[in-house]
Amino acid sequence: xxxxxxxxxxxxxxxxxLSGCGGxxxxxxxxxxxxxxxxxxxxxxSTSKKDVTLKVWGAQTDQELLKELCEKFALEHPENNxxxxxxxxxxxxAQARYLEDPAAxxxxxxxxxxxxxxxxxxxxxxxxxxxxxxxxxxxxxxSVDAASYNGILYGYxxxxxxxxxxxxxxxxxxxxxxxxxxxILEAANKKGKKVHMDVSNGWYLASFFIGNGCTLTLDESGKxxxxxxxEKGLEAAKAVREFCNNKAFVTGDDSVLQGGIGDNIxxxxxxxxxxxxxxxxxxxxFGAAKLPTFTCGGKQVQMGSFLGCKILGVNxxxxxxxxxxxxxxxxxxxxxxxxxFEVLGYGPSNNNVASSKEVASDPSLxxxxxxxxxxxxxxxxxxxxxxxxxxxxxxxxxxxxxxKKMLDKLVEQVAGK
Amino acid sequence: MIxxxxxxxxxxxxxxxxxxxxxxxxxxxxxTLGENTQLKVWNEExxxxxxxxxxxxxxxxxxxxxxxxxIILFIWILCLIVKNIRKMIQLxxxxxxxxxxxxxxxxxxxxxxxxxxxxxxxxxxxLFTLLPIIFMVLIAFTNFDSSHQPPGELxxxxxxxxxxxxxxxxxxxxxxxxxILGWTVLWAILATFTNYxxxxxxxxxxxxxxxxxxxxxxxxxxxxxxIPQFVSLLLISRAxxxxxxxxxxxxxxxxxxxxxxxxxxxxxxxxCVVVINMWIGIxxxxxxxxxxxxxxxAELYESAEIDGAxxxxxxxSITLPYMIFITxxxxxxxxxxxxxxxxxxxxxxxxxxxxLDYYQAGxxxxxxxxxxxxTVDQHDYALxxxxxxxxxxxxxxxxxxxxxxxxxVKKEDMFQ
Lengths: 417, 416
Description:
heterodimer; A: about 425 residues; alpha/beta; D-Maltodextrin-Binding Protein, domain 2; about 50% helix; globular; B: about 425 residues; mainly alpha; MetI-like fold; 2 domains; two-stranded antiparallel sheet; about 70% helix
């Protein structure tokens, strides 16, 4: 009796194993079916009304406007049943959050242009292939360049205000003073005021090097190219050292500038996000201008800068690529950008909006637009920031080290990989 | 017994189903961690590049680990079944009683109660700690970094490249690792012993006969604990900035003429973090030592006094041995905690001042903050994982060795 039971059990387990294998086969068949039905679904999409659920990521401050625009989009596109899923993911976190789990990331998300390299390498972004010529024409060349990688457009330019320029106190500095760095320092020293720049931040530090014609970009294979240790770079570095050793120089992050301007600081370099609080502190003395020129190798050289954009990208893992693209296109069209400027004050990348009266009369955006003539796109990777900060911090600390050696080390780290 | 075996077999079947329906497609790629990246196919009708999903190295690695765990479980249960059946046959031959299913269950509440009790902790430990750790350790042997992010670029096995990179191959990384390791050890020693010694002195001072209002003093020092650590750290780091409160005050008083680079000069920044750590840590050690001091029997001191011992003598011969004996295990914990003291370093200096000769790190970075930066900022998971393994080895070897050589462990029974 017992033996038959045991053999019965063994037989049952054998069958179970076999059925396990069987299950595998049938699941493989299911997969094929899935694929077929998937393509069928795609075919039918163009004909009948279907349910489309899109997940959209935006920063906390943009949520309300995002909802408003998405709902408007749904009204204008009644051919589908739209459901929108909003997630609060700021641009700065977009890349990190995306890479955690691409399949669970938003279908449409905004990212800053400095993340484009990593995102493209991870094949996260759909190329813009529909309406591409139109989009390129509608937006400023700088923003199109920022949203492109190796000449292919990888997203829909949304804003073009991620840059920096000079804020100054009109009661201390005149319009002529702010044309040259030497003029600013002279006037500031005369009145015992400080000039703020966060030199130990690669983003600002680079303006000297870019201004003097150095290269910082990525080549076609994604390798970082940097020639800050060239002759030109050395000249620029000498100018940075001289600036840092000036009595009027003060460093620190934005909070230092926002707190000190009007008191002991007479001017500083920052971006549009600081505009409101600086306006509040300076009142009628508020001034904004493009970056000054600086003395470099005996000549006056215009400081360069980075000009970044926020870009709307479409996730390659999305189930509804065409619909997601339509939404992204809508959220970045002229009307939406005008509304975004109206509500949030973000500088537009759309040519028509940028040249509209409202935008052109904003002193900060005007300064940014002037500076953008000397700006480059931020096509760089994460290896730049830490060494650049180290380099800037050494100069801020009045180090007497050999600049050429320091620059060699910087370039080795930045362009090493 | 038969029902038990049936349950085992059901478990086996479930595991087999898991293996074939889910695990197989991952584990079959385990050797290469995937070969096909996501494909682009031009769709003329929609005018887009459609994507055909490819392999994802990270998911392959993750689910392979789970599948291997399932295989091991499968074999283990198989062994259990065979053992059970053999036992049943033997018992049957001898004509002895075979346990019924109910009796087996009852046994779990009685003779084998330890298994029942430990089952939940063990299962959760394996699922949420052991398996993820194995996954992380395996990453150290791949090239999972910022330029190998799936699904666009897959990563694969690279053997010991990361280890050799840290120790031999890559001069910058080697220099960074040993530089940071040196500072980490120095920091852990300084941070532990400054707190230890000064906390002890403070406790003795407050406990001294001549000091009035003992409770008030103790409370005052403990108030600094009431403020969350990260709040005071962030505030202090703000205050020490070039234009911060401390520099502004010193400038106004005319003591200095230009702001002191508290957090941007290597030596000064290192001194600052150690000193600020005292502010954070001393109240805790003071509390511990106050407790110990109050528990030292007063007779010991009285008899010492009768024997003619002075204050210093009784401190060295009574107080010190007593305190070291009791606090040694806690000190080891503190030491290990300081090796991995993320909060103080990251919130105060964020590892800065950054150094040009370090790879993505600064002069006050500990191994653990460097690891954090490599993971979160650089996505250099493979290197970070390698460093994580080293931290684990250093910490476990150091603490086990020291722990086994201290008095309180050797003479455990002395204090009863």
